[in-house]
């Protein structure tokens, strides 16, 4: 059984630093740091359509799943948003995706904005920097084990 608007709004409101607004013709819109992470609206059938941002893996898993589709207006612009409608995702699974959507959007906020909102400043929130630092560390450690010096670009600064 899908989430009702009441359950959807209660769950999204329980996530940290969220705001709620009704816009776009009566859609229930949830934001973190002023950025949308979930939309309840644009019904298709008897249950609300719940739209949320997904990772690349989530996109691949859900875009052709029964009761799910690329989100109208958003996915057509190259964004990774899914809409669960009718008897799409169950309550537990949908809540997991809503929580992940909140985390994805929050991770895209600036460090300053996350700090203002009291959101954790995690390493994973900046994947490009973390990946670069990890790559340099791996090259440096590999060269130390082999007895060679890393190239200048891979040397760690003191």
Strand order within the widest beta sheet: 1-2-3-4-6-5
What shape does the CA trace take? globular
Give the structural class: alpha+beta
The proportion of strand residues reads 15-25%
- Give start-end ranges of low-pLDDT stretches: 123-158
**What is the number of helical segments per DSSP (H or I, 4+ residues)?**
5
Global Rg: 20 Å
Describe it.
With 158 residues, this protein is an alpha+beta fold. It contains five helices and six strands; from the N terminus they run αββββαββααα. The protein has helices at 5-14, 56-62, 91-107, 111-117, 127-146; strands at residues 18-23, 27-32, 35-40, 50-53, 68-70, 81-84. Strands 1-2-3-4-6-5 form a six-stranded antiparallel β-sheet. The model is unreliable at 123-158 (pLDDT under 50).
Write the SSE topology:
Blueprint: H1 5-14, E1 18-23, E2 27-32, E3 35-40, E4 50-53, H2 56-62, E5 68-70, E6 81-84, H3 91-107, H4 111-117, H5 127-146
Antiparallel strand pairs: 1-2, 2-3, 3-4, 4-6, 5-6
